[in-house]
Write a structure and sequence with these properties.
It is a single chain. It is built from two helices and eight strands, in the order ααββββββββ. The protein is of the alpha+beta class and 131 residues long. The longest helix has 16 residues.
Amino acid sequence: MSRKHLIAGFIGFAALASGVIGASIESARASKAGALPIAETSIPFASRDGIQDYKADGDRGLYIRGINGNWYYARTLGNCPRLNSADVIGFETSAADQLDKFGALRAQGWRCPLASLVRSAPPPRKAKSRG
């Protein structure tokens, strides 16, 4: 195997491991389905009053309202068992004090890494119970 092939293989493996190829495949699937790909985003000043409100979405996600009034949806990498029952949720941000898909949520001692953070509609309202 020549050095050129070895370098090309290494670059391809690095791109696959970093998710670049996977993200391209997801974008292509979304385009074929007629849907626009959802862009990752960040919430600035997350640890200094940048987050006004949040609502748990079971144990896999969190709706977050930023100081600018926009809603975001943070999907966790796996189940976050205490997310739905936690009274207080902590946010692990980057050095630039922004919450993005590389951050994490803290709920009753559990650290829940994020898989994605995207702009969202407000959380669905609970139906009123009749009785």
